[in-house]
């Protein structure tokens, strides 16, 4: 009997990217439609790693992008995003998410980080804030603190970013859709929040159509 094949969506994302948060409903819809036939694998991507300067939260660029795109999209999706008063680096937030993954709480921490930054305006670049967020999803505060201070998951974040460069990813969110077990280089890359048009679903269908006959779940 053939082993069941499912589609895999590898998502390169950053916790300081509003469009990555705005992609969540689309991915949730795909998950509801396909169930066990699709897996979502979140990968780290820092938009502004050290030493690239972070953006000015009061600058014209951010306000222009938010007024033209982020606010209209968030209203259309029924989400409440607010331009954060800070623009931190995101390395430690990604490391905290990787700690949560190891503890079986990735999805909860992933969503909590986005909400803390884009709905509550918290500085997710600060250790204390990350510890507070972790506590809300039942992560051990002391263990998380040790992991962050030891840079325990820095190598995983760097590895994800090295992978993104090999794949030619230059913006987020970028979703690479393929069959689980296939090289990511063979997947179909889709960039930008896809809340309209069904492009992500069509990519999933194309991936599943390549599965051996009888192997779809």
UniProtKB/TrEMBL annotation:
One of its GO terms (molecular function) is isomerase activity. Gene3D superfamilies: Glutaredoxin. InterPro entries: DSBA-like_thioredoxin_dom, Thioredoxin-like_sf. Residues 196-208 have a biased composition (Basic and acidic residues). CDD domains: DsbA_FrnE. Keywords: Isomerase. Residues 9-194 form the DSBA-like thioredoxin domain. Residues 183-217 are annotated as: Disordered. This is 2-hydroxychromene-2-carboxylate isomerase/DsbA-like thioredoxin domain. The lineage of its organism: Bacteria, Bacillati, Actinomycetota, Rubrobacteria, Rubrobacterales.
